[in-house]
Amino acid sequence: MVIARSLKDAARLGSATTSLLLRRSEDLVCQNLMCAKIGEACVCRLAVHLSRLGKLKELDVAENDLGVLPEPVFELPALEHLDVSGNGLKDLPAGVAALSSLRTLRLSDNALTALPKELALLPLLTEVHVDGNSGLGSSDRVVEALQHRPQTTVVFGDAGDYSRRRQEDASTSSADR
């Protein structure tokens, strides 16, 4: 496993990089004079580096207040773990469907009100964290679809995860018979 903890590390390690961990990273503060987000968190530098990291399995860009995700995130075929918590995301692009290797998705503490239906099509997805998105609840159609997949756990934070609770309820019912 080749871990990069900065964009400089990722550039140095190149395509061998399997994990890019940029939680609360100063690397994502834009320095491009042509960008409207200069001095703020921005996806422009991240996008350039991601396009060179085809073997990336883990991407953690949590707590950077990015607002959006760059398209190259959805062009990482080997990506298994994606943490975009605390980025002020208002939506998750349908491009997430291209992440066929994705197992864990952390969307906590954003501004999501719905999830794309394509999320329910990811074959290996086993864990989705949606806590801290006040506009998103268990009544969301995609969340509901994910909860009905036996291999997928949807985590809502302090309320506990509904999938595990549903499995426990099923076990209790079986034991009572």
From TrEMBL:
Residues 156-177 are annotated as: Disordered. Gene3D superfamilies: Ribonuclease Inhibitor (3.80.10.10). One of its GO terms (cellular component) is cytoplasm. SMART domains: LRR_BAC, LRR_TYP. Residues 161-177 have a biased composition (Basic and acidic residues). It holds the Pfam family LRR_8. Keywords: Leucine-rich repeat, Repeat. PANTHER family: PTHR48051, RAS SUPPRESSOR PROTEIN 1 (PTHR48051:SF1). This is Hypothetical leucine rich repeat protein. It comes from Ectocarpus siliculosus.
